[in-house]
Amino acid sequence: MSEVLLSFRGREIRQEEVNFLRQLIAENPGLSRRRLSVKVCQAWNWVQPNGQPRDMVCRSLMLVLHRAGHIELPAPRRGVLNNAIAHRRVAEVEAVDETPIEGSLVSLGALEIRLVRRAEGEALFGHLLKRHHYLGYSRPVGEHLKYLILAGKRPIACLGWSSAPLKLNLRDQFVGSPKEAYRHNLHLIAYNTRYLIMPWARVPHLASHLLARIARRISADWQELYHHPVHLLESFVDTERFQGTSYRAANWICLGRSLGRGTKSKPSDPDTSIKELWVYPLRSDFRQRLLA
Questions:
Q1: 154: domain CATH number?
Q2: What is the pLDDT of residue 234?
Q3: Which residue, 106, 35, 118, 17, is CA-closest to 74?
Q4: Range of the domain at 51
Q5: How many domains does the chain have?
Q6: Are 33 and 116 in the same domain?
Q7: Higher pLDDT, residue 87 or 45
Q8: Can you tell me the distance from the alpha carbon of 193 to that of 172, in angstroms, rounded to the nearest whole number?
Q9: pLDDT given for residue 262 in this prediction
Q10: Do 272 and 157 share a domain, yes or no?
Q11: Which parts of 97-245 are beta strand (E)?
Q12: Does 74 fall in a domain?
């Protein structure tokens, strides 16, 4: 067996895989990059936990090999927009009532927790994050859920969840094993990418209350959409802005602080703010299930 040329998303790429890609491209000169990636996923049985092909991951791999000179991809069929800009675009929505909401949790009445991924309310979800969250809005890729919380007809909170980051040393220590031991089960972890309590919702304990309610249902929601549960929740808290009070009140566990380096940072990149990693196990046997 030849040496490993590179490791990509847990898959080792050797000269045999490169030769296969070269032959596939030569035999299908009329196919687009996307159609080629679908054929590669089928040939390699490279699929997501829900059975769908890892199309975007495969295209990224082929682009890496193309840029390194290992393969020659066909020219793109159309110009590609700047992804960073395109992913932050949100649709226009009607003006939102920002009159202050004050009082107790009980005074809010029944709260509606609405899943808005590809559903009514998704445009409003993106608009609210873009306008009121310090990180703004960025369209997620891969597995993700979007929750919009309403008091009556008025939005009071947004929570976004996505696939977990690949490399977190603090998480490895918590699981008790190196990431290589559970990399194949990272889809069983959900990452809280955005949490926004609307600035007009001034209700004590609302943030921790919503975290607790989402924790009780998120695994079932993930199962329904992606055909697998999640067993561990995690989130970063920017220590320069927040103290993690709501996570602590919802019984999350603080694992420690980062070194100020992003999960995808390079040595030449400037340091980021220090962040705390908080986690919430959804099952007592989450470690066994991650390592299974």
A1: 3.40.630.30
A2: 97
A3: 35
A4: 4-67
A5: 2
A6: no
A7: 45
A8: 19
A9: 55
A10: yes
A11: 101-102, 111-115, 144-151, 154-163, 189-197, 201-202, 232-238
A12: no
**How many whole angstroms separate alpha carbon 173 and alpha carbon 243?**
22
List C-alpha distances in Å: 236 to 63, 89, 142, 212, 257: 30, 24, 19, 17, 9
Positive/negative CA dihedral, 123, 127, 128, 133:
positive
Give me the phi and psi of 218, to 5 degrees please. Answer: -65, -35
- In terms of residues, how long is the chain? 292
Which two tokens mark 78?
């159309």
- The DSSP code for 79 is P
Q: 99-148, pLDDT tens digit by residue?
A: 999 999 999 999 999 999 989 999 999 999 999 999 999 888 789 999 99
Model pLDDT for residues 150-167, shown as the tens digit of each residue: 999 999 999 999 999 988
Same domain, 62 and 99: no
Q: Within 10 A of 139 (CB to CB), how many other CB atoms are there?
A: 12
Residue 10 lies in a domain: yes
Looking at the predicted structure, is the pLDDT value of residue 205 above 80? yes
Within-domain flag for 146: yes
Q: Is residue 181 part of a domain?
A: yes
- At 7 the pLDDT is 79
Among the candidates 67, 85, 112, a domain finishes at 67
For the segment 22-79, what is each residue's pLDDT rounded down to a tens digit? Answer: 999 999 988 999 899 999 999 999 888 777 888 888 998 999 899 888 999 998 876 5
Q: Percent helix, strand and coil across the chain, each rounded to 5?
A: 35, 25, 40
pLDDT above 90: percentage of residues in the chain: 68
- Which amino acid is residue 7, in one-letter code? S
Give start and end residues of each alpha helix (H) in the chain: 15-27, 33-44, 55-67, 83-86, 105-108, 122-132, 169-175, 206-226, 245-249, 286-291
